[in-house]
Amino acid sequence: MKMLIAVSSLFLLLASTAHAVRIKDLASFEGVRENQLVGYGLVVGLNGTGDSDQARLQLQSVATMLERMGVTVNPNLIKLKNVAAVMVTATLPPFAKQGNQLDVTASSLGDAKSIAGGTLVMTPLKGADNLVYAVAQGAILTNSFAFGGQGASAQKNHPTAGRIPSGALVERELPNSLAGKSRLRLNLAQADFTTASRVASTINAKFGPGVATTADPGAVAIQIPDSFASRMIDFVSAVETLDVRPDSIARVVLNERTGTIVMGDQVRISTVAVSHGNLSLVIKESPQVSQPAPLSTGGTTTVVPRTQLKVEEESRRLMLLSEGATIGDVVRALNTLGVTPRDLIGILQAIKAAGALQAELTII
Question: For 339, which of 52, 99, 205, 343 could close a Cys bridge (C-beta 3.0–4.6 Å)?
Fold first, then answer.
C-alpha cells in the first residue's frame, strides 16, 4: 500500500510538471547520424581456448596472414588452439576525424571456448559502401572466465565476446553533410503533428516567419537565414537549444511480469464505476481412519472423510470515477480501494474493455 501511494505521488508530480525540452533532444538534422562498421579478424594469445581444427576458419585466416608476412604454410598442416576467428563491430560517429579512437566489440565466430586474455590482430573495419573507415587492434576485455575439466566446469558472464576500449583508429572521414547547404531538414524522433507544428513555430519566433515549415509530422524543413549563411554551426547550435513542449498520444503501458505501470498526463476516462474485491476459498481435506483394536478377531478398517471449508471475501466500496477524470483522479480513487500495482493492471484492462479509458493501452 505504501509503495502504491509513493508511485501514485510520483505520477502526480510528473503530470503536474510537464516542462519544455530542447529541440536537440526531440529531433536530429538529416545526414547527421552514426554509421555501423564491421570487420573480420583474428584473436591470438589464447590459453588453449581458441577455435578447434573443425572450425577451419582460423586455419585459413592464419595461413593467409602469414603469407602476407612472407611465410608460406600449408593450412592443412596447421594445428592451432590459441587463435579464434571473430567479427569486429564499431560505431562511427558523425564528423569523426582521422586519428579519433573508437570502442570496438569482438565476438567469436567459431567454437572457441573463450577469447578472454586474447589480443585482436590489426583488423580493417568497413562501412556499408565496402570502404575501410577504421582499423582495430588491441587486448580484449571480457570481464568473464570459463574453466573446466571432464567432471566439472565454472563460467562467469559471457567469455566469447569482449570489448576493446579505444581499440580502433579512424582512417577515413565521412563527408560533411551540412557544408554548402541552404536548407536543412529536422527529423523528429517520434512523428507527431502537434510537436512538429510547435517546433516550426518556435523556430519562426526566433529567426523570423517562413524560416521553418512543416513538411510532414516527422520532419521540419528549415531555410537558413541570410545572416547565418556563413555561420552554419552557429545556426544549428541556436536551433538545437530552443525549448519546445512536445506532445504525444495518451498511452498507458503495462508490464504484467513486473507489475510496472506507466501513464502519461494526457490519460482521461469516461464515467465508470469500479469495484474491487478478492474472494479467497480454502478447502482442506483431513481424512480420518477408523480401524479395529489390536489383537481383535473382527471388524474392518474405515476411512472417514473430513473437510474443512473457509471462505473469505474482502469488503470493498463501489468507486465512481466521473467523466474527464485525470490520471491523478484515477490513481487517487484506486488508492482508496487499496489496490496493489498488479491489481491496478487488471482494473485498467477492465476499464479499457468497458470503453471508458480514453488512451492507448500497451502491454509489454
Answer: 343
